[in-house]
From TrEMBL:
One of its GO terms (molecular function) is protein serine/threonine kinase activity. Its EC number is 2.7.11.1. The lineage of its organism: Eukaryota, Metazoa, Chordata, Craniata, Vertebrata. Keywords: Kinase, Transferase. This is non-specific serine/threonine protein kinase. It comes from Crotalus adamanteus (Eastern diamondback rattlesnake). Residues 135-177 have a biased composition (Acidic residues). Residues 118-128 have a biased composition (Basic and acidic residues). Residues 109-177 are annotated as: Disordered. Belongs to the protein kinase superfamily. Alpha-type protein kinase family. ALPK subfamily. The keyword NADP does not apply.
Length: 177
């Protein structure tokens, strides 16, 4: 038989996950979300069983909760727990912040930075860019020309190497005969 306490216990709606701050600062946040919060509650964040933060929440406040990690790095690796407790019970979520997770977030940040720069360039082109758009187009054209020249040089070098190899083979054949 279920008692009233069990029916009103908080529930985990979304497990803890890591997100990047949008400002490319190297900061990350761990986020999770609880629901069915029928009384005032306390949210406790720990890392490797050490208390990091204690926050009070009002009943019915089911907004996501987060923990900011400034300049996340090796020192921040560990097992994080987020626990919401109230008179009806508790709900807990954990997240293991590993070097692999940090590397993945760092690579996402690099991709997002590039995307943001491209979006900014596109926006400037659409707006006319106050004269800056033409300069950027010229820079892009120059970059493309440089890439084409490099490719041509590489092709020429490959052709020269092939010709030298053919000449060496011909010389070896002549010496054999």
């Amino acid at each position: 038989m279920l008692c009233k306490k069990d029916n009103k216990a908080p529930k985990l709606l979304r497990k803890t996950h890591a997100e990047l701050f949008p400002d490319f600062s190297g900061n990350i946040k761990l986020c999770c979300q609880f629901g069915e919060i029928h009384s005032d509650s306390t949210i406790i964040w720990t890392k490797d069983s050490k208390l990091l933060a204690r926050v009070h929440r009002s009943a019915k406040d089911d907004l996501p909760v987060s923990l900011a990690i400034v300049q996340a790095g090796k020192k921040d690796q560990g097992l994080y727990h987020c626990c919401l407790k109230n008179i009806y019970g508790k709900a807990t979520s954990e997240f293991n912040l590993t070097s692999e997770v940090l590397e993945h977030l760092s690579s996402l940040q690099d991709v997002e930075e590039i995307s943001e720069r491209e979006e900014e360039r596109e926006k400037q082109r659409e707006e006319g860019g106050g004269g800056g758009g033409k300069e950027e187009e010229e820079e892009e054209e120059e970059e493309e020309e440089e890439e084409e020249e490099e490719e041509e040089e590489e092709e020429e070098e490959e052709e020269e190497e092939e010709e030298e190899e053919e000449e060496e083979e011909e010389e070896e054949e002549e010496e054999e005969t």
